[in-house]
Design goal:
Blueprint (H helix, E strand, L loop, with lengths): L4 E4 L11 H11 L3 E5 H11 L3 H15 L2 E6 L11 H17 L4 E5 L10 H15 L6 E5 L10 H11 L4 E6 H8 L13 H15 L5 E6 L22 H8 E2 L13 H11 L5 E4 L2 E2 L9 H19 L6
Parallel strand pairs: 1-2, 1-9, 2-3, 3-4, 4-5, 5-6, 6-7, 7-9
Antiparallel strand pairs: 8-10
Helix pairs in contact: 1-3, 1-11, 2-3, 3-4, 4-5, 8-10, 10-11
């Protein structure tokens, strides 16, 4: 398999005392070839150094280059398309993010589908907004927009709706970020069910993956993110200790219970390898694969970035094994 392995900076630690430079060193030591830089991590690093964020970006790029780690993306540029705030304000913020991405030499800006409830449902507005964003990133050095369908997205929550937007936006630097968590929790898993699964989950997932392999052009997969999910015990309800009024149950799930793929000892149970086999092996996808997890145990600083990085690399080894690739374990 030709895929290079990356990891999101927030997936190495969520503890504020573990700064971005420490996380990147841990990722490099663990064997990762790439890093997805979360904007808040970069901002926190800059504040700790008492330097502007543009200077912080240059320092982080220099560090990455010295460690032979490529910056894969700047993430996540949230709640953009169809938002209720004026477009010129959103484009000004987007311009800043793209400037930072260029300073980091990141080829991608990750854009999750909007999940606020006060946004436009007008497809023409959504498409136009996304076209304007892609056009901001188009001049060289190009920053491509990696659009991700969140399983709790307001207008876009499936890969089908994301691919439809990709086709209608119709810009060469606008494509897909595919995440196993969102596929797994949209068509297969259910954290409010005692079984942890939706009705006809296996058939629904099988059909979804078959359609994806048939309908999605491989060149529109910009990169693939891997994540698992824990079964909720007790099942999710409005009285669950993690529940927040008005928050989608999948969003709650995402924030608290996303271990590395196939960490079954931590409760991971999604069919990650089945999804990854379709997206990577069956599609012949040779691009970047990235770990994006949200392990609540990483919030208090007890889990070191080095331990998290080792877990991520071991997770990829297990995924490759279960996908059937034993050539490069």
């Amino acid at each position: 398999m030709a895929n290079k392995l990356a990891i999101s900076s927030i997936s190495i630690s969520q503890y504020p005392g573990h700064l971005l430079d420490e996380k990147i060193r841990a990722a490099a030591q663990g064997g990762f070839a790439g890093i997805e830089i979360v904007y808040n991590d970069l901002e926190t690093y800059g504040k700790a150094q008492n330097i502007p964020i543009h200077t912080a970006a240059q320092q982080i790029l220099n560090l990455c280059q010295s460690l032979n780690v490529q910056v894969l993306s700047l993430a996540p540029f949230e709640n953009y398309e169809g938002a209720s705030t004026p477009l010129d304000q959103r484009l000004a913020i987007a311009k800043h993010w793209i400037e930072i991405a260029r300073l980091l030499k990141a080829p991608y800006l990750q854009v999750p589908s909007i999940f606020t409830h006060d946004c436009s449902r007008d497809e023409k507005v959504i498409i136009s907004d996304l076209q304007r964003l892609a056009e901001l990133g188009a001049p060289a050095p190009t920053v491509s927009i990696a659009y991700e369908a969140l399983s709790w997205g307001t207008n876009c929550s499936t890969w089908e709706s994301a691919l439809d937007l990709v086709n209608r936006v119709n810009r060469p630097n606008f494509g897909l970020c595919m995440d196993t968590f969102h596929e797994g929790t949209r068509v297969w898993g259910d954290n409010a069910s005692a079984s942890g699964k939706q009705m006809d989950a296996d058939a629904r997932l099988r059909d979804s993956l078959a359609r994806f392999v048939r309908d999605c052009p491989v060149e529109k997969i910009f990169y693939v993110q891997l994540s698992d999910a824990e079964r909720f015990d007790p099942p999710y309800s409005v009285t669950h200790p993690w529940a927040i009024p008005g928050e989608a149950k999948e969003f709650t799930w995402s924030k608290h219970a996303r271990p590395f793929p196939l960490e079954r000892e931590l409760g991971g149970y999604l069919p990650v390898a089945q999804i990854a086999r379709a997206w990577i092996v069956e599609m012949g996808f040779t691009g970047w694969v990235s770990m994006e997890v949200f392990d609540r145990a990483m919030r208090d600083g007890i889990v070191s970035p080095e331990v998290a990085a080792r877990r991520g690399v071991e997770s990829w080894r297990k995924v490759k094994s279960e996908m059937g690739d034993r050539s490069r374990l």
